[in-house]
Design goal:
Layout (H helix, E strand, L loop, with lengths): L2 H11 L5 H14 L5 H4 L3 H8 L3 H29 L1 H21 L3 H29 L5 H53 L31 H4 L3 H31 L4 H6 L1 H21 L2 H19 L5 H22 L2 H6 L4 H18 L2 H8 L4 H8 L1 H13 L4 H9 L1
Length: 425
């Protein structure tokens, strides 16, 4: 840690708990990850397809391959976070994410586009989100849910800000310069706070999570948690992976096909169908901190189970959105769903496996989620392409998160090994 970080910590830490500064950095990191998120790519796809004479199918294929590539590298990133700390990993991530933006702006063929997608998905949607959640997680325990909820606001803001800004940049500067501007803004937004403000964990400045001061030197060694190999032997890891894979696949599918479903199956004008993202975003902003509060106050497995029921309700409600009133109800339910998911994103791994090796465990868990996101839209696409009843497919898919909710309510529990570690703390 640079001495200037310690000096800044000493000044800020006298006024309020420094963990809230870290949560702000985490939220900014989640916002900046928008450079690698699906909602930012959306305005660029038709323009790039026309300019490079590459079909939308080819672009989508490059996107899927890049996402899968990013997913399988995330466990390696998690181990790097455990070894070197999230701050240094995040600094290199932001530098490489900005370079990825420049590569994307220079892409002239399918291969360059695929490489650029790989950079943006791996360093944006993957590593930057993982590192932001990790550094925030390290600073909180009893208030972790609320802190990660505040961090998740960065994603809601990204959904609301990145698409219109991208459209503005494309219109006024062209899609290539738009990516140059996005890349430069990524460096400007993230590098200063990471270099001068970020501190890996409270123990580095003689604190514990939630601002508890360390009384003796020996307390610094009492960060506890399961190793990755130990976590992989726990049924909780597989229940969580199974459950959040359902969320990742089906929520991605809803994001991808919302306009298509409402327009083609319920004759809602495309502009109105797209505008329904607005109440979703507003609902997310309201409910993300509330979802974090629920995690701090209630049993985690019950909150996860409820979130899965909300995912089930999102799928059912869009399949009955036959008019604008029902469509708005769906968009609000979907916003609550996204709020729970973002609050849970960084919470579940340290909650069930501890902080000591949370990077490698989260990296492996997030790999599962990103794989789910990469293939999530495929079942709905196949139903449409082969003439199956899409609405029936959506309703049938709701059984997956419903089953996951059942598993969480009745079988998801903290391992005895972690409970023993907590009691010995």
């Amino acid at each position: 840690m640079f001495s200037i970080n310690k000096q800044i910590y000493n000044k800020i830490g006298q006024k309020f708990f420094y963990g809230w500064t870290i949560a702000g950095i985490g939220s900014l990191g989640i916002f900046t990850s928008g450079a690698g998120q699906s909602h930012t790519f959306s305005p660029f796809i038709p323009v790039i397809s026309k300019d490079l004479q590459i079909s939308s199918t080819s672009i989508t294929t490059a996107y899927m391959i890049a996402t899968l590539f990013a997913a399988f590298l995330l466990p390696k990133v998690g181990k790097l976070v455990d070894k070197f700390g999230p701050r240094i990993v995040l600094i290199y991530t932001v530098i490489l994410l900005g370079i990825g933006c420049l590569i994307f702006g220079a892409a002239s063929n399918f291969l360059m586009l695929a490489v650029a997608f790989g950079f943006l998905r791996f360093f944006g949607q993957g590593t930057l989100m993982l590192g932001s959640a990790n550094i925030t997680t390290q600073w909180f325990d009893k208030k972790r849910g609320f802190a990660l909820g505040l961090m998740g606001l960065g994603f809601a803001l990204s959904m609301g800000i990145h698409p219109p800004i991208s459209d503005f940049l494309i219109t006024n500067y062209g899609w290539r310069y738009a990516w140059v501007i996005i890349g430069l803004s990524t460096w400007i937004l993230m590098l200063p706070p990471l270099i001068f403000l970020a501190i890996d964990k409270p123990e580095d400045v003689n604190e514990k999570p939630d601002g508890i001061k360390i009384e003796t030197i020996n307390e610094k060694t009492k960060i506890f948690g399961l190793s990755l190999n130990e976590a992989l032997k726990e049924k909780s890891f597989y229940i969580l992976s199974f459950s959040f894979f359902s969320i990742s696949t089906l929520v991605t599918a809803l994001h991808f096909f919302q306009v298509t479903i409402l327009n083609q199956y319920f004759n809602l004008p495309s502009q109105e169908a797209a505008a329904l993202f607005i109440p979703t975003i507003i609902t997310m902003i309201i409910f993300i901190p509330l979802a974090g509060k629920f995690l701090d106050q209630y049993k985690t497995h019950n909150v996860i189970g409820i979130s899965l029921l909300v995912t089930t309700a999102s799928l059912i409600s869009i399949s009955f959105a036959s008019n604008i009133t029902f469509a708005i109800i769906y968009s609000i339910i979907f916003g609550i769903n996204n709020a729970f998911n973002l609050a849970l994103f960084g919470y579940i791994w340290p909650r069930y496996f501890g902080r000591l090796h949370v990077g490698s465990i989260q990296g492996t868990g997030q790999m599962v989620l990103v794989v789910g996101a990469s293939i999530g839209a495929m079942p709905f696409a196949l139903a449409m392409d082969f003439g199956y009843d899409l609405l029936f497919t959506i309703r049938a898919s709701a059984l997956y998160p419903l089953l996951s909710a059942f598993l969480c309510f009745f079988f998801l529990r903290e391992s005895q090994k972690l409970t023993d570690m907590r009691n010995q703390k």
